[in-house]
Amino acid sequence: MASLFDDSLRKIKFLFKFSGMQLEKKSSATILHIIRYRWLYIFNFLWLNTDVIGEVFWIIDGAANGKKLNELTYIAPCTTLCMLANLKSIFLLLNEDELTQLIKNLREMEKNEIGNENTEKDKIIEEQRGFLNFVISALNFWNGMTVIAFSLTPLVLMAVEFRKTNEIELMLPFLIVYPIDPYDIKYWPFVYLHQVWSACIVVLEMGGADCLFYTCCAVIQTQFRLLQHDFEGVISGHESEFQEKFEKLVIRHQELMRSVNLLETIYTKSTLFNFVSSSFLICLTGFNVTSIDDVAFVLSFVTFLLMSLLQIFLLCFFGDMIMTSSMDVGHAIYNSNWYTAKTSTAKQLFLVQIRAQNPCKLTASSYADVNLRAFMRILSSAWSYFTLLKTIDKD
User: Fold this and answer.
1) Residue 2 pLDDT > 60
2) CA–CA separation, 226 and 220 (whole Å)
3) Which of 59, 171, 194, 371 could cross-link to 320 by cystine, CB 3.0-4.6 Å?
């Protein structure tokens, strides 16, 4: 049976390849090696952030010159998402040692399961494989749709305007300050392509970091479920046989907890910014949808809003899966035939059960747990900011 982890990594490898992060190519501390393995990432980083700086200058200039609120909020969600993509990719690279160790751990755990033919276990793995493939495909599709929507909207509006007036009015996907006139026909094609590739970089970096997170969470949850299955059947007729099986299960449990801690180290800081920024992203995008009159731009921001909601929901959903599956180990022990075992055996199982009651969890830099409750709090905050913006806009 194909490895769930490696099978999923193959499906997201292109995201890391074109973003320049190179998932399993580790660079050393020397400048030569960093340039050799990260040259594309450095190129993309500089390419993207020239636009980010221009967006920030546009917002500052717009605020100084008294532009309307809906004009200022037009580019703000895009700028926020660019910063989030930067942080996600940077923290992945800064924690590449932990990432390498995590990948090694997950592969080793899956390798240990190979050869253990069991219909119920196979069903668990295949169920998770189908779900994870669906999530990755859906996320990639919607990210692609968002890029296409923003990229094509100016062209559609230009075509509509040309049909009405028989004149071409050059437009761009994003409002950015440049040292040149971006609407000069000499520069416009390059600026247009520059902005489109910047949008692609954001989607590649966000998609790569998020899909890797979902994959690791799904594999860890699968291993917790397999561990639950084995704990339910750990009681056997011979004490020596139980002791051997029990020790192996405890080691597996410890390895799973270490893997969760590694995942926490890799993602905890970027998740904090993700939590904080998501409320603003959802709020600002929702405000744009309700305040912009142009249907083409409204459709672009609707796709952006749905992408933002999907991204933070999946982040919280997979974090919640880790918590739930780690606590279910205690339920599995309770469902075993512990009451038929010796007192010493029951005590050993009881200790594991007590540990399982303290869930393995991912956090936003210890500020908040990553679970579905956090998602509801983010939505609540976004709604509060949205109503405040609408009130300010009316005034």
Assistant:
1) no
2) 10
3) 371
